[in-house]
Amino acid sequence: MKLSNFELDVMQHFWQQTQCGAKHIHQEISLTKPVAYNTVKTIVDRLEEKGAIKRVGKDGRAILYQAAISQNDLTPSAVPSFIQRFFGGSASGLITHLIDDDKLSEKDIAYLEKYLQDKKASKDK
């Protein structure tokens, strides 16, 4: 399933909450960027059509939705397009950026070292 950047922004709210409506999503997104309610409602409708969210009830007249897919469901399709868009298709460019950003803890570095050793060992077989 392919989702636009704005659809992914909206999905973040569904992943963070058990259930919510378009009005709540609009209120949350409006805190960081100016967007009309109708725009958010259109995105919510599209996400429902794509099967990314599903209706789970009502709160008065408002329809409540919840995520029908997890973030992990989208990762395999989202990562390659992200790498293409921001790093010209170079995975090493992404990795270099993450390492150069200086936000890796000692635990992160140890994990990466072990992961790379294991990956190399499995390729050598």
From TrEMBL:
It comes from the Bacteria. InterPro entries: BlaI_family, WH-like_DNA-bd_sf, WH_DNA-bd_sf. It holds the Pfam family Penicillinase_R. Keywords: DNA-binding, Transcription, Transcription regulation. Belongs to the BlaI transcriptional regulatory family. This is BlaI/MecI/CopY family transcriptional regulator.
